[in-house]
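Shipment paperwork, digital attachment
Item: protein structure file
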Amino acid sequence: MVCQSAIARVIERVESVWDDSEPEQEVITQSASDWIEDNFYIPELEGPIRLVPYQRAVIQEAERRDKNGHYVYSMVLWSDVKKSAKSSIAAAIALYRAYYYKRAQIRIVANDLKQADTRVAFYLRRAIELNPLMKDDIKQVNYKTTLPNKSTIESVPIDPKGEAGGNDDLIIFSELWAARNRAMLQMWAEMTLSPLKFGHSQRWLETYAGYTGESPLLEPLWERATKEGESIGERLGFPDLEIFSHRGMLCLWNTIPRCPWQTPAYYTEERMTLDDSEFERVHGNRWVTSTNRFVPKEWWEDCEGELPEVTRHTPMIITLDAAVSGDCFGVLMGTNRKGHVDIYYAEKWGAPPEGEIDYQGTKDQPGPELEIIRLCKKYNVIEIRYDPYQLHDMATRLGKRRRFPPLVKFNQGSLRAVADKGLRDKIKEKRITHDGNDSLTEHVLNANAKQEGESKLRIVKRSTLLKIDLTVCLSMLAYDGPLPREKKKQKGVMVQSKTKGWA
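Attachment content:
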């Protein structure tokens, strides 16, 4: 008897938890898209957002429920071309759900806390501040927004252990294409929907396409939806819309600009600032490989031309790069004035079989070090840029020479990624002039480009057997930004100390 009563109490407790877990709804009679168009403010219109017809149709489908009142889709993958308001729509859905459910728990996750709080969460906070009926009633403290009905919306850091075990009504993942590190993968695994809110909660993923083989979370979802799912565009009234339904997942994968502000003039300008593969990825929402040929042969050939005459006042820059294996050394000399680069000298040294490069060489066959000294004597060299990792010893020797140009370290980290992207833009826009040097042409055409986001790329070898040292030299020469310079210690200068007098 005791045992039966204990079991009954456990069952009663479980049933009460299950009943309480179902979110308590507010009295909202509008559909999600209608509510958004009445309440989600944007600065461009100085009032509520106006959804494009296909966006309304997809939102309506994402909100669809079955006969039991459960969401048909537990996951919504909203992937659209850049500047299609996908982040704003995700923010609007979060705000709508927060009003729709009392005491709702909504979390926004991205690849880091800054990204989560500066995209979806930023648009959400801005909409609240612009809406005169919301701004005084909603509290916003740090990364958390609290509504009068006790619903909360929070941007969370990548902390798989700390964020596990939630009971969320909505989880928004932003820019899933870039989720590839171990912490983010574990975060995805931990932040699953609670079974206690099955049918009343969703994962909402907003992103555009990534790089083939480098998006372990997004790419499998895309493949399952597009290859195994049912195309439902015609049912929604948009036969050409790439939208799929697959086992509780709704996937919009739009590749066509459909918004009125996405004009031909806008895309013409964007093509001038982005390389072809990155343009296809963000503005065509298409998967691309992160490594492609650095520049087409035709671009480089278009840059060949007659160089301006050199005078004794022409300010030259020398750049140096050596392979990690020590089997190739490149020296480049040219000018970089008013955003245009002229290349006057390019030479490479290779190591003999079973040997190493002779950096000094002889008078008749100078190595790279003697050649650099010769160039500095002959031309008005104002600066020598070099990779300190490989060339520290040589730079130290050269730096001890009297009346020698300053040697400036060009670190090969993020600075190089910016410089490589700038070089590609210069070649594309014919802001490079060269005389067709065979070695330089060979190294430029040996290079591939590995994309690192929208504004950076890295020059890499197309094959381990090919050399690209002169291409790296050209990247350093074409860089327009400031470089860190070391201050030389002055000897024999009297310095007055505040406490110890002259020293």
